[in-house]
Amino acid sequence: MSPARPSSRFLLRLVAAFLLIIGLQAAGVVLAIQRLDAVAGARSAAIRAEEDKIAAVQRLRWSAELMVSTGRGFLLSGGPEHESKLHQAVDDFGAHLERLEQSALGSVSRSLLAEVDRAADQFRRHQAALVAARADARDPEEVARVFEENLRPTRLRLSEALDQLVQQKESHLLEIYEQVATDRRHLMSSTWTVLGALTLVALAIAAIFARRLLRAYRTEEEARARAQRAVSARDELLGVVAHDLRSPLGAIMMKAATLQRQRSPEVVAKQAASIENVALRMDFIIKSLLDAASLETGNFSINASPCAVDTLMQETADMFGSAAAAKSIVLDRAVAQPHLVLLADRDRLLQVLANLVGNALKFTPAGGHVSVTAEAQGESVLFSVADTGPGISADEVPQVFERFWKHEKRDSKGTGLGLFIARHIVEAHGGRLWVESEPGHGATFHFVIPGVGSEPPDHELTPPPERPTGAIADPRR
Question: What is the 8-class DSSP label of residue 4?
Fold first, then answer.
């Protein structure tokens, strides 16, 4: 047979599952990258904006220092070029201040910028007064002294206001840096969490499909094993049929040839009866094979009707009385409670008893003893068949009810289906069949059949049909 393979539909589902796993992981990576890029872009923009504001504040401070230095130079020299530079510095400071006021500032920054504006306004007013006094040709040394006395406090106030604004912006920038680092850690943690979850989902899906694949593989292996067993059983069955039917057919042909040469009515009748027995044996083999086939396909059934246990035991004893006497074996029977009635298939129960008693007689040596007993146990009847034969080894006990099992004995012949069929007949009645044996001390087969009742002695049950001579169940394991 070809090696086991999963179905194409299962393979498609497996491929789809792994594609889904890869897609989920890829989507997780893409989303993580996009999120990182978005956060990095937003934080980079915030950092650039804050750095621009710091640069604007620095330019404002530089223009303030330039306004202070050019003012001092004009007051000391009185030259027109210094006056022009002073006016330019004042205009530049005002422009830088206006741009900062128009930018997006926080409440703290805007408050500090207002303080800078007030300090700068006070400084410019004092400076303008000194510039006007210098233009009136006042003493330069006096102007310088006044400059130091009047402008120095306002200049220091302006410088401190600018320093506070710069420090606030730098502090805010550091906060942004720290927030970026925190966001990055959180984002990386979230990313690893998502990727870990996706990995776990992928592993779970892979495990599920791996189990399904293993289950499918085992199913295919079991199907292949069953097919191989079926082929082996078929080959074995063909061997059994060829072996067991060849001998009876040869006997029939030989006896038919003898009939053709005989003219004596007595000899003809004897040979005809012998041929009939051989034919019945062949019929039993074929029926056993059919029963085994029915059991294998699940089509085996029983026809239950009231049957007397006493009658079953008597018919079994009558069936094997002559065979037991021929081997000098004592065959006895006993029913613990009389008038027991079972709702069962009488012919099938008789087939079980015939198989067990026939086996017991076959393996019990001359001078031995075979006993058949029946007793009520609650709502069931326990049948037992015990012999004084060699017994069954412990290794063989678990196998005795398997199909085609035969006792390892040189002259053991038969289909090997008797105990196999007997077990299924008992189980079809809702009962159980088992064996107890110790090598060298015989074997005892027990089976329990539920559905017991009782009838008065004069109760008329349907009499069993007459069986032709030789119509005995196969007494061979």
Answer: P
